[in-house]
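Session log. Operator J.P. requested a structure for one protein chain; no other inputs attached. Running the standard single-chain path with token output.
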Amino acid sequence: MKREQRGFTLFGLVVALALIGAMSLAALNAGKLREQQIDLDHLNRMANMVGGSLDGYYQDNCLAAPFPQPTMNVLTNNGYIRHPRWLDYRQEYSFSVAIDNPRTPQVSYRVVYNAEDDSLASNIASKHPNAYSAGSQVTWQFKPTLNQSAERLRAQEVRRIFGSNPC
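Structure written below.
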């Protein structure tokens, strides 16, 4: 009489466990990649927010002689950055800022971030059209925009009419 076999073979169980392990590892890696993508998106949003705050700073200080270069503390403490707590999202996200060529048509704003390594910097820079990387440093470049607050428009018009150096 032939005995009927029931159940799984040892080989079948090992293959099933290996497949489950591989799928779990893939799901874990996908979760980590998604978290990293969210962090990079947040970093780009913060750089854009800082770049926008430089516009207000420049409009308010463009005629000062000599031109006072901004710092993150000045932007935060003087209200140019409207929601500074967003910058505290990740402590390692610290920016440096600069305004290049003030009082000229070539004026531009720079927001600089030092990444952990060169590959992360190039990955960050690839996510934003105005960003570039050099080594582990990521730089976002912004051009001034016309801020539509009535006070700034009035000041620009007065400078234009009375011949002051336009900003």
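Operator note: Residues 45-161 form one domain.
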